Amino acid sequence: MPPFTPVGNCKSAPGLRPRSGNGKTHNPESLLDIAARRVAEKWPFQRVEERFERIPEPVQRRIVYWSFPRSEKEICMYSSFNAGGEESGTSGDNNDETQLPFLRGVTLLEGGWVDNVLQVGFHLSGTVTDPATPSSPELVCSVSVSFDRCKITAVTCTCGNKDIFYCAHVVALSLYRVRKPEQVKLHLPISETLFQMSRDQLQKFVQYLISVHHTEVLPTAQKLADEILSQNSEINQVHGAPDPTAGASVDDENCWHLDEEQVQEQVKLFLSQGGYHGSGKQLNLLFSKVREMLKMRDSNGARMLTLITEQFMADPRLALWRQQGTTMTDKYRQLWDELGALWMCIVLNPHCKPEQKSSWLRQLRRWNSVDVCPWEDGNHGNELPNLTHSLPQGAHGNQEMRPHRTVFTRAIEACDLHWQDRHLQNSYTAGCFENVQHSLKEYIKLAFLSEHVPTACARVDALRSHGYPREALRLAIAVVNTLRRQQQRQLEHFRRHKKELLHKGHTSITNMEGWVGHPLDPIGTLFSTLTESGRAGEEGSNTYCSSVVSRADLQRMPVQRLLGDGESYVALAVETALIGLGQQRVMPDGLYAQEKVCRNEEQLLAKLQEVELDDSLVKIFRKQAVFLLEAGPYSGLGEIVHRESVPMHTFARYLFTSLLPHDAELAYKIALRAMRDLSRPHHIVSVVPNRYPRWFTLSHIESQQCELASTMLTAAKGDSRRLETVLESIQKNIHSSSHIFKLAQDAFKIATLMDSLPDITLLKVSLELGLQVMRITLSTLNWRRREMVRWLVTCATEVGVYALDSIMQSWFTLFTPTEATSIVATTVMSNSTIVRLHLDCHQQENLASSARTLALQCAMKDPQNCALSALTLCEKDHIAFETAYQIVLDAAATGMSYTQLFTIARYMEHRGYPMRAYKLATLAMAHLNLSYNQDTHPAINDVLWACALSHSLGKNELAAVIPLVVKSVKCATVLSDILRRCTLTTPGMVSALHSRRNSGKLMSLDKAPLRQLLDATIGAYINTTHSRLTHISPRHYSEFIEFLGKARETFMMAHDGHIQFTQFIDNLKQIYKGKKKLMMLVRERFG
Description:
Layout: H1 31-42, H2 45-51, H3 57-66, H4 72-77, H5 101-110, E1 114-120, E2 123-130, E3 139-148, E4 151-157, H6 168-179, E5 185-187, H7 190-195, H8 199-212, H9 214-229, H10 260-272, H11 279-295, H12 300-313, H13 316-324, H14 330-347, H15 354-368, H16 397-400, H17 409-414, H18 422-428, H19 436-448, H20 453-465, H21 469-504, H22 522-539, H23 551-556, H24 569-581, H25 591-609, H26 615-630, H27 649-659, H28 664-674, H29 698-715, H30 720-733, H31 737-751, H32 760-777, H33 785-799, H34 801-809, H35 817-828, H36 831-837, H37 841-861, H38 863-873, H39 878-892, H40 898-910, H41 914-925, H42 940-953, H43 955-968, H44 972-982, H45 989-992, H46 1010-1030, H47 1037-1051, H48 1057-1071, H49 1076-1086
Parallel strand pairs: 1-5
Antiparallel strand pairs: 1-2, 2-3, 3-4
Helix pairs in contact: 1-3, 5-6, 8-9, 10-11, 10-12, 11-12, 11-14, 12-14, 14-20, 18-19, 19-21, 20-21, 20-22, 21-22, 21-24, 22-24, 24-26, 26-28, 27-28, 27-29, 29-31, 30-32, 31-32, 32-33, 33-34, 33-35, 34-37, 35-37, 35-38, 37-38, 37-39, 38-39, 38-40, 40-41, 41-42, 42-43, 42-44, 43-46, 44-46, 46-47, ...
């Protein structure tokens, strides 16, 4: 007898141990077990009972026996977040894998903590003990499990678990039954046992049951007894009685137990946390659980997603955001995207029933009609045509009236798609292996030319999601071959019309929606399908609960016949990604949609970077790079692209680095082509009606353009021809000063690496970029301008003395006069620069001469800000210094403020030119005006200094400056301070050091020039007093009295001061007699 191969998931019938070893036979299952197992899997027990009048007890026992699940995969799925058991549970943050319900259940089972296991019909019960720990006592839990047709349909446990998934105790009891079925005492449903009892036995049974559990069941027992004895009671109107152990009825839905209330509560909790505390991760894990259920072809996948969606739609933040006009967070928006994608998978289930699809369609339309339902493109609606391109216009009459596409629109449209097309079925079904190639060609010819690529990829995703990996793989290969064929046709078309398009210089050819960043993620789907299959084929599948295609599955697949010579799944995946990333496509509308394009592109590139390039993949890269360059408007890197085409900088940088070691010329062609001018999309008129293009991600795009340029600069180090080409491209295409400055800095760092000699060519590129930055930012405000100027001088210093001389010669095109003098010239003449350049005396003098010339030119152009710097820079050259001084004098009358003049005057005194300082101080005084109440003005110190300088020079100088002071200063306290200082010492102390003419006498207050100053001071006190009394308040009375005291001191300096002050006080008393309290204080102090 040949060896027997077990059927289905069962390894062998319990109790029948297959023999091992070559040439030895296995014990076959009995026909009873084979039949009973098939009935237990498919038929509800009620149907069995209705079909046969009498079922022998042995047959009933085997049906009941085989009705319990035999696979641990589903139990694992319902007790952990993913099949591998690698994620934490929903209710806790503990990342210890041993705390997962499934693994804890296995531990309890293997530790012998499961006891009293009893199976009565379709009901399993037992006790599971949680052993004591240092933090908790021992806990004994009573567990019961109901099951039907190899599915657990209900669970209860006294542990009080509140979670979406089964607790560890349910897991332990269920696994006990799976692993040790012969140790479980099995009874028929309780109704069968009762049927065999006599009346006395039934009475004894009931009375014993009540006696043992009288506190719990006595009230219920009495109530039931009363109803049974009443002829008109409802209970007597029904034939028979319920039996919880008798299995499912015909009308019962056959599905695994899912706690709907807990699903809703958990989702509601995660949403309320707003993305904090890892709630976004937990929701993504729930979505992964839905996908896992779909892959196991478990009907709870759609049921669970419905519960999740209801909670998402009930999120109160949706209405709030819509009302306030604010956008939802990016992570939350991505959760909605995944929700829409999952519904797309569900409605595309190739084996779902029409009534199921109709039910889902009603549900989706209901959600779609809610005002707060999120739009597909984030926050901006659009009016693109039906995006599946496979549906007739008007197929959704009511939907067409809706102006915006929601996250559910594609799933609604997909409800009209079917799988009945003969060529489509030939592309993914396992039949007719010898005709696969022919079927594929027919499908490409007849089906794919009319089917939207994202829709075809959605079919692939649906097949994968619903546990049809082989069919998904076949269909994915068909799609990729279609993309290749489309590419070839596009290339041929462009070559035929190339002259015409190049002559026009623009094109309207584009894809209104790209495959990268598309809501259905077609390229990502194809890539994942192909690479997963490739990994499975190479490594096999050893994950316990994995549903990825296994090595054995792949060996049985005829898909290899669809691959060309030397091709592999990975090669197909890579080529698919390159085709998608290089597609010429219009930048979508709205911030979120544009960010999604960037994010999806980065995700695909990250996946590509995980693939190691071999010779076969390099050939694919070369092939796709050539297409990108030669395919015109069909390529994002063609000679002519649509004016709103998505830039290719990020993709081109990846291609550049990948191709550089193998084909440098092609790599540079790709990168330079991608460096296109980004200034074009800001002022254009859109080709789409009512569409207002705005590149919200422009800053990101510009930074990627900058990164591409930087990568090329780094690679071109040492190659002057390449560097010149890259520099020209940067100068032509990059207009952002900050990005050009970054490139200049990058080039400088690369050129001056510590482990090698400076690359002078790259240094010159760096300098040239720096000069461009200077020109761009010269007439615009830039907060980094000083940093840029300092850096440029450093860069020029590294290039050499001729570079420094050059920037000084053309300073007016690069710097403001202030920058040129205070930063450029000052740095050039510093000792550190001289040392760094190793200059000899002649070179130092030439450089200093250029710096002085620059300083004088700047002083002429902007004397206010550059004169002092020019004087400082010209100190060692007499002629230049005199020239700078004359520039100051010429500008003093009109172009300079008193502050600037005082500063230069102090500088002159410090340098030993007191007469020049005096001259500038008098010029400054002519611009000054201090009113009576400006006794804290910053210029007061300069006025005091100027008077002190004049006093020190002599009587004549002081006499000349006092009229200027009297004219410019009206503040009494300042004037009195000057007057007091002038009377303390003899004028001309500086002159006295050089002459004996000084008499040493103090100046008289009765004669000029101090008499004039004294009169002005007294007048200032009188005017100030009247001004202060106009608006004085009682809290300022004491301060005012002190002020009068200082005024009296000044009055007393005049020979008739006592009389003047007395008259002044009397006038005050008369004029302000209404201020009685103040005048009383004045009398007390001054009489």
